[in-house]
Amino acid sequence: MFSSFTRSTVSKLVNGSGASALINARTYYRMPSVPYAQKGLKPFLSERSISFHLEHHKTDIEKANNLVDQTPYRDLPITQVLRQAGGDSEEAPFFNLASSHFNQSFFWKSITDRITEPSVFMLKAFRMDFGSFEEFKAKFSRNASSMSMPGYTWLVFRDKSLSIINTFGSGSPYELEGAFPLLCLDLHERAYYLDYQTNKKKYIANFWNFVDWEFVENKFLNALVQDKDHKQSIEQALVEEYEREMYAFDRDQQSEKDAYIENAKKQTEQALANKDDIDFDDDLEQQLDKEELDGRFAVEEETSEDLYSEDDFQIKK
């Protein structure tokens, strides 16, 4: 038989109140997993800097959890909270804390101690919207460097394209209608001051060596679930780019083959021309040898006449 406690619990679950309580418990905010916290992400972030930042994050979570029960947003996922509460002035204190928690969590997930690289699909998306992957990084870095107050720099997907935005203070990218965040860089001093002091540019430069591109692409693909046409356009662009590259490769191969044949012909013609020159040189050499030989004999004959003239043997009186 069930105990009175068990019967009560089962009754609540069957009637829905217990299930609601369990769901509500899951919507409380908590610290995300930060697997690199103990050893740091050197030379980007030291363990001391990460620990200091996590303490600030923990405080924001505790304050948000203390306020969430007093708001109409307790049963909502945090992304919906940020979309709906951004314009609610009465809930501004709670929104700021919830947004700060989300932003910092997104930053922790945007970096990793593993070596990752953008996929071919992701690189194509960068080329389509920024011209190149390097130009995207340069523009993102410029946006981050231009921040004159604490905030975040984001890569977002919106209106069928990738774009870069800055949010200030605890501002959320979800306040921008239709925006899906993909990558985040925290530009509050708590994130970098212990390691960089005021050298924010170096902090931004080191960031690129620790971006988790697998996380970025997963977020991008999730965003594209609601925009399958754009996903197909990127895939089609990749196919067309591949075909152009293969055509160019075949064309280059044919050009190399034609150039090789043409060069071989020229070498053959040059060799034949050199053969004529060699024959001429041989004839000339033989002619010079003959002239030199004839000249030597002529000198010898002339010399012999001088040496053996009658005057030389004449006895002078």
TrEMBL record:
This is superoxide dismutase. The keyword Oxidoreductase applies. SUPFAM superfamilies: Fe,Mn superoxide dismutase (SOD), C-terminal domain, Fe,Mn superoxide dismutase (SOD), N-terminal domain. Residues 122-218 form the Manganese/iron superoxide dismutase C-terminal domain. Its EC number is 1.15.1.1. It comes from Cavenderia fasciculata (Slime mold). Keywords: Metal-binding, Oxidoreductase. Residues 300-317 have a biased composition (Acidic residues). GO terms for molecular function: metal ion binding; superoxide dismutase activity. Belongs to the iron/manganese superoxide dismutase family. InterPro entries: Mn/Fe_SOD, Mn/Fe_SOD_C, Mn/Fe_SOD_N, Mn/Fe_SOD_N_sf, SOD_C_sf. Residues 291-317 are annotated as: Disordered. Residues 29-111 form the Manganese/iron superoxide dismutase N-terminal domain. The keyword Metal-binding applies.
